[in-house]
Amino acid sequence: MHYSGNNSSHFEQKFVQNLISVDAYTASYYDPSQTNIIFWIPWIDFNSIQFESVTDDFTLNSYIGNYYNLNWLPKSTQCFNIIMNNCVRDFPNTVFNSFPKPNQNQYSHMAHDEVLFMMNRSCATIHIKETEGFGYTIIESIAKGRPVFLKRSFSLGSRLMNWCIEGKTAFFFDDYNEFHSKLQKYLSDQEYRHHVQRDCAATIRKLIDNEKQARILDNFLRNLK
């Protein structure tokens, strides 16, 4: 049995009889008539990522700084840097953070509790990543009532499109002008911002049913080839 949570994470078909596919791409490499496949969502602990309140804290965070710091994804890094450089000029009263911070060019991590703490102290998340298979941090941010800004071309075809809904849980953009326009509206209109934050947290809980996913997995395991 093979488990996949990232884009294009696949083995040769002859080695995989059963596939738990969390991302949207991997299953396309296998013939459903020969491989037992399910699309599954891991258990989302909504109790630990509760929506606590709306916020007027003009802080936007990114939680995949390692990819930018180490230049693992050059297209993502370039796009992120363009956004950040322009935002410093156009949104002087807004704080933009990229976590985790560089640590002598070594790979570093944030504790999960720290990520959730920083989400509470932000109003939105920026997630610019060209190969996102599932996006657990995206789900956490949405569950916290913090919508996510996503580059449209990096997101299309990914499983995250099932819960990233324009104007409800996410804001998609093609270029900086579109990003600027949507962020400007979000920051300048308090009533709209608070509505999105509340709707964000409520929507993800309607879209992802943990008990249903548990039943899907149980049935899959009972019918392994």
From the spread of the alpha carbons, the general shape counts as globular
Order of helices and strands: EEEEHHEHEHEHEHHH
Q: Write the CATH fold name of the largest domain.
A: Rossmann fold
- Kindly, what is the distance between the CA atoms of the first and last residues, rounded to a whole number of angstroms? 9 Å
Describe the structure.
With 225 residues, this protein is α/β, with parallel strands linked by helices. The strands form 2 sheets. Strands 5-4-6-7-8 form a 5-stranded parallel sheet. Strands 1-2-3 form a 3-stranded parallel sheet, covered by helices on one side. It has 2 domains: 2-44 and 209-222, no CATH class; 59-207, Glycogen Phosphorylase B (Rossmann fold), CATH 3.40.50.2000. The protein has 8 helices and 8 strands. The chain has helices spanning 65-69, 74-90, 112-120, 136-143, 152-155, 176-188, 190-207, 210-222, and strands spanning 2-4, 18-21, 36-39, 59-62, 95-98, 124-127, 148-151, 170-173. Strand 7 (148-151), helix 5 and strand 8 form a beta-alpha-beta unit.
Descriptors:
three-stranded parallel β-sheet; Rossmann fold; 2 domains; 39% helix; 8 helices; alpha/beta; 225 residues; five-stranded parallel β-sheet
